[in-house]
From TrEMBL:
UniProt cofactor(s): FMN
Known EC number: 1.-.-.-
Protein name (database record): Putative NAD(P)H nitroreductase
The keyword Flavoprotein is assigned to this record: yes
Residues annotated for FMN binding in this entry: 10-12, 39, 127-129
Biological source species: Streptomyces spectabilis
Biased segments, Pro residues type: 181-190
Matching InterPro entries: NAD(P)H_nitroreductase, Nitroreductase, Nitroreductase-like, YdjA-like
Pfam families listed in its UniProt record: Nitroreductase (PF00881)
Annotated region described as Disordered, given as residue ranges: 164-201
Cofactor binding summary note: Binds 1 FMN per subunit.
UniProt domain Nitroreductase: residue ranges: 7-157
Keyword Oxidoreductase set for record: yes
Amino acid sequence: MELEAAIRTRRSQHRLIDPAPSDEEFVDLLGWAATAPDHGHLRPWRWILVRGDGRAALGAAFASGAADPEAVRREARKPLRAPLLATLVLVPRRNHRVPDWEQLAASSAMVNSLMLLLHDRGYGSMWRTGPSVDSAGPRLLLHLAPHERIIGWLYVGTPDPTRRAVPRDPVQVGHRVSRFTPPPPVPPRSAVPQGLTSPVP
């Protein structure tokens, strides 16, 4: 698939079924996704792959921070929407010349490349965040270090063939693009206006 075609046809897939990429295939695609722009080549991230019964355990961790019984049921079901939940963890390099925000930006660029590569292989994906990224349950379950942070979950699988892909048009973004016009040049300070014997202070 050509890159432009991949960008035009990729969709966030709300319903994903088996098969999902194997661990080996995921790592292979990730190796190419990791070539995305990354100032300093820090790779300030790691992935935790959640499959099978691990999804139910993750659902229980999601539900541990819910406020009412209905929210508990809703949160517990979320990880069951896909056969693979790839958890992206930011592992920032502290006190580095590349600031934390730029390390996060590099991680985001990598995710976008990975989603396009998955689409090219025939897989679907859905990027999800929400309150769970900052709640204690998932952090404890996945054994995160104090300085690590969950950025989000990439739900991965095969698109449900019973769901029709809705065509879409490019976003109208012309109003968000402008051209810089430099100001007129300022006369040099050494220029002496007529009738004066010294530069204007």
